[in-house]
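hey so u asked for the seq, here:
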Amino acid sequence: MSQVRTDQQADALLAHLAQGLGFQVWGKFRSVAITPDSLRLACTAAGIDPTSIPDIKPDTAVARGVRDFAHTETVESADGTISERARCRAEIVKRSSDVLVIGILRHERLASSRVRKEQSDTLVWNRVTRCWDDPGQTEHADLLRAKVQHAMTYLDGNDIRMLIVKPALSRCGAFTIKDGVYFVPRGASEELSKLQRCLAEVEGYALCVGGLPAGAGFEAPLAEDARASLTNDLDALLQQIEGWEAMARRVSSSSQETVLNRFAELQQLASSYEDALQISLEDLQEKLVLMQTRAQDVIELREEEASAKEGKPKALTEEEKAAARTQTIYSQVGKMSDDEVSDMLDLLSDEDVLPDTPADEKRALLIAALGA
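ran it, structure tokens below
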């Protein structure tokens, strides 16, 4: 099993890191430049799915180059003082399906009480042929094209954060402590170590990881943040379910899959937070189960209504609906670990389950409890 690398001084304070609460994680970057192919290789070597790294879209690169372009001219006077003379920025002044017209805007100081603003050069990017119809005439146009070419070739630090870091932290079950700083529960150390191995190949990007010891006063604030994070996630799912209730058509299969999978993910998150922080989230677990049932009911109702409008017989008989519900429960329980099955069974079952009950029997009991 891979080990998460943390600051050596922090390690010295934490004799048994595996018994700690988890990790505090944040990232910082400067002058990151890596090609998509190189990043895919780093992902593959670290055990991260490389297919999540897309190629750079030329139009997106042009827009980024335009946004980032800035140039300042200075002039040295006779007495040796240096002062700002002109500032140049770029802007997309026209968009069409075929071209992007880019203006280089010059803001020049002519005197202490007089300035002049004008478009000093124009470039035209062809979105179909993906080349410059008009490359511009000035030195500023040359600088802008070079910046666009760099954006077409390399991903930057913000790309790494959105494509690699945030998805990995989501898989870790991380939640935000404050802007840019995350808590990762100890059970996600393997996923976190993959992220570290990947980012070790990205020059200019640093992922900072510190172990959080138990008994040092972190439990209460982290428990509060964990509860708030799960509550927000459940609220987002509730909005989607309410949207299903308000619409007059069947729920798409992709939407169903996304929401039902999200329920399973939140169940796993709740269990990992309870384990790492030694807290009870029983109320949220119960809310999750009720919402899951509500979502399934809405899916079935919308399917029946849509079938009726199409002049078809009812989509499902009561027996078929029960079978479909059981199949869904089987699938969700199958994705849960033995510990998660035990925790959920304790929450839902009216009878005490002996600790030495076989795992398969526990799963059968849970399926029966969820289907009741």
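Strands lie at 22-29, 70-76, 82-95, 99-111, 114-126, 131-134, 175-178, 181-185, 205-212. The chain has twelve helices and nine strands.
lmk if thats what u needed
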